[in-house]
Amino acid sequence: MIRKNAGISALIVACLFALATAPTLRADTIIVRGKEPITGVKVKSETFEKVVYIQKGKTKELPSAEVLDIVHDGQPKAMRLGIEYLNLGDNLNAVEQFKTVVAQASASGLPWLPEYANYYLGKANLGAGRFDAGAQALRKMIALKPDSRLVGEATVLLMRCLALSGQVKDGDDVLKKLEAAAKSPAQKLWVLEARLVAAEGLLDNGKPREAADLAKTLESESKTIKAEGADAFRARAMMLEFEAHLAARNRPKAKNVLTELKRLGRGGNSHALAADFCCRTMEILDSSPVESDLWKAVRFTGRTYIENLKAVSELPRTCYLLGLTHLRLSESRSGEKEVAKGYFEELRRRFPETREAFLARDQLKKM
User: Fold this and answer.
1) Residue 117's pLDDT is what?
2) Can you tell me whether residue 127 is helix, strand or coil?
3) SS3 for 106?
4) Which residues does 187 contact at the CB level (< 8 Å), separation at least 6?
5) Which of 87, 91, 300, 353 makes an SS bond possible with 277, Cβ 3.0 to 4.6 Å?
6) DSSP labels for 295-337?
7) What is the mean pLDDT of residues 34-61?
8) Facing residues of 343 across strands?
9) Helix, strand, coil percent values for the chain (each to nearest 5)
């Protein structure tokens, strides 16, 4: 899911990589969003609501929404190797390591291990394009611990597996359980994220009108949520609604979405501004563009790409559209195909669990 996976800073990724490759861990480490890791602690419990830990003899707690990851003491070697492979984008080798961890988890004596092992196995299978296996592991993880700290992201990943395999309706039961468990604004945002993946699945499986209706509903619901990431979510929902209207050949409704994005962007909403530029690029690509139109599209998405720190949530779509635009330019200009390939490969590397990563994969197969 983008909020977590696209937004982690280079420092946090480096920290995760170092911890994953360390030979031993003497205590638990909590990776906190936007802050230095909390080291030398003992995690007592972790749920969808909060993480409780002991630090220097004192019991403390954090809202789970602030926790990016927990690296536990006693982490098996195969788990560390699997995480290392994931960080390198080597999903197939990661799958093999996490299979080993799953097989050993029940007898390990580590209460957190079955949950984490199945979560990572599902994530690695998704990245490897093994959607059925990914869905199976993620369902098992959710069944093992329905109130898991990871249940929001696990549900999003499960919905991605189902959407990519054309079985998005099979996730209705899990969505209902997540909706029932979500109490805080941050938790409710996870529900919207999972439902947006369902909307993407509808669009990619030939149901653009249904996708547009669902995206519009989610955009409206997101207005009532006061949580970090709500503005970014709203922009992505509107961007998907715009794309769905284009696919349904309903340009008047697409124009209405674009008008609202422009209004929000002028008001200082960087996410809406990025989505506006992406939608204008989609509009150009959906027409019969001449070369000057395509360079205009490059300027739109190029600006979003360069100014990505304030709108990282829109970067997967930005990279994909840049790739598509340069691919169209390659029909009349040499060297542009390699530029397009670079954007598609960057997308696969940086945002492996997004819809756009798999769209990029399909483009790379054709090149």
Assistant:
1) 97
2) helix
3) coil
4) 48, 49, 65, 152, 181
5) 300
6) HHHHHHHHHHHHTGGG-GGGHHHHHHHHHHHHHHHTTTSTTHH
7) 96
8) none
9) 70, 10, 25
Measure the CA–CA gap between 219 and 257, rounded to whole angstroms.
Answer: 11
Taking the domains of the chain in order of start, what are their residue ranges? 276-367
Contact 212, 253 (CB under 8 A): yes
DSSP output for 60-90: EEEEGGGEEEEE-TT--HHHHHHHHHHHHT-
Instruction: Say how far apart CA 89 and CA 217 lie, in whole Å.
Output: 34
Confidence at residue 311, expressed as pLDDT on a 0 to 100 scale: 60
On the question of pLDDT at 8 being above 50, the answer is: no
pTM over 0.85? The answer is: yes
Percentage of the chain beyond pLDDT 70 is 92
- CA 33-35-39 angle, to 5 degrees, is 100
Query: What distance in Å separates the CA atoms of residue 348 and residue 356, rounded to the nearest whole number?
Result: 8
Burial zone of 259 (CB within 10 Å; 0-12 exposed, 13-18 middle, 19+ buried)? exposed
Residue 306's pLDDT band, with cuts at 50, 70 and 90, is confident
